[in-house]
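Entry 14. Ran structure prediction on the chain below.
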Amino acid sequence: MKIGLVCPYTWDTPGGVRSHVADLALTLQEHGHTVSVLAPVDDPVGLPTWVVDGGRAVAVPYNGAVARMNFGVKAANKVRRWVREGEFDVLHIHEPLAPGLSLLACWVARGPIVATWHSAHVRSRILSAGYYIAQTAMEKVRGSIAVSEDARRTLVAHVGGDAVLIPNGVRVAAFRADGRLPQIAPDRPSILFLGRIDEPRKGLDVLLAAIPAIIAAVPNVRVYVAGPGDLGDQYENLDPALVESVIFLGRVSDEDKARALRSVDLYVAPHTGGESFGIVLIEAMAAETAVLASDLPAFRRVLEDGKSGALFANEDASDLAVQVVRLLGDGEARDELVIAGRARVREFDWDKVIDDVVAVYESVGMPGEKVTTDLRGQIVGRLGIRPLS
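Output, structure tokens:
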């Protein structure tokens, strides 16, 4: 099958959607399919051969964050050319109503289209204000996928229709490879934060507020912060008493992200909202690292209400500190989380999830058909996901 994937967010910046598209593309290729990905690109150096440069991105406020996307006449021309030259059997558009390449692809594409919904909006001004534009674009979509129940609710509430629930996948084997990140000291208790450091909803401020109490109980702890953002501002605003304990790693590659996760005692996800799934939690479990996360509904579902990862009260730095100190001091508790996480992550391995994605592709490839209720039920049953009530 010849498949075109559209990623609305810049290929250069780490993120859940970008990681999902990249891993999906690699897995599809491993299963014998031909894949081309269209995405905004700021720096084409080292770009994989299967990624097509969709133009430079600009910062756009979207879903409680500042996303890097591109749009306009040049972007529209790139989309038309890519679709025309690709002659895809299926066009798979991620975040179809994100203002940029995805929405443009919905407008200009012909043939079978599958859309994947990633984001969860309690209230979305963009989707509400653009309801009729959304309807025009979505009329072409013959199969919809939601990565979580929250994302599915967003689709139902703002656009209408329904979707097959297929969760984010993770290439588990890639996270279990050998090798540590050399910047992380092997002889000290360690925790890791991953995310855009200047995006408030990723919760770095909550973690930093908890660090004094953590250091008081575990003086030799090291806190590693990995992700893009202005490190100068972070160091300038950091309490001098924390400088020796907090190490900013900056932007890391996918390979170094996996190494970093494998190298620490505890991965902490202090996100404060706007999450529909939490793929980074699955990545940490795949790396066989104990997880501690805020008790967002999406995180609770992924971590089975604390069975495969510990939880703390959202935005509560004191509770975060208590849980970090508890887990750093209890190796057996961390081992129990690792064992539970190892079992949980099998459900999200791309080698398993890919069959359900391809089943959707095959369904929309049938002339005049949309994803059927029977197919939806089969996929939901295989994944053990509770249908939307």
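The longest helix spans residues 16-30. Will compare against last week's run tomorrow.
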